[in-house]
Amino acid sequence: MIYNRCGRSGLLLPAISLGLWHNFGGDADPANKSALCRRAFDFGITHFDLANNYGPPPGSAEEAFGAILRNDFKAHRDHLIISTKAGYHMWDGPYGEWGSRKYLIASLDQSLKR
């Protein structure tokens, strides 16, 4: 796998990342999700891309990857780059979407729990 330096951060990103959107929803087979991530890692993919609304339902992709991280990648955690993002509708009310400070902090807290 080719890895590219990310700016001056020292972070090395693989040329290919694995995005976990609809293929990681709540109704997908957990064994298949785990096998997909392990196979990607075997090929040098160390960046897994998530978002607070990935699923469906929203948040389920982060929950599924959290379980895979605990069960399959515990020994490799320091070799992985896990990214998430926020900004899309997650809950009702004035702070349930877009980019307010309150929304972004709440979304990050929820992602870290998942």
Structure description:
The protein has 114 residues and is of the alpha/beta class. The chain has one domain (3-113): NADP-dependent oxidoreductase domain (TIM Barrel, Alpha-Beta Barrel), CATH 3.20.20.100. 33% of the residues lie in helices and 12% in strands. The chain contains three helices and five strands. The protein has helices at residues 30-42, 60-71, 101-113, and strands at 3-5, 12-14, 18-19, 47-49, 81-83. A three-stranded parallel beta sheet has the order 3-4-5, with no helix packed on it. A hairpin with a 6-residue loop joins β1 and β2 (12-14). The longest helix has 13 residues, at 30-42. The chain is globular.
Helix and strand content put the structural class at alpha/beta
Total tally of structural domains: 1
Q: Supply Rg.
A: 15 Å
Task: Measure the end-to-end span.
Answer: 29 Å
Main β-sheet: number of strands, strand sense, barrel status? 3 strands, parallel
Spell out the helices and strands N to C.
EEEHEHEH
Strand order of the largest sheet: 3-4-5
Helix content: 25-40%
Overall pLDDT level = 90
CATH superfamily: NADP-dependent oxidoreductase domain
Give me the number of helical elements: 3
Per DSSP, what share of the residues sits in E-state strands of 2 or more residues? 5-15%
CATH class: Alpha Beta
What is the fold-level CATH name, i.e. the topology? TIM Barrel
What is the CATH architecture descriptor? Alpha-Beta Barrel
Write down the overall geometry: globular
Query: What is the number of beta strands?
Result: 5
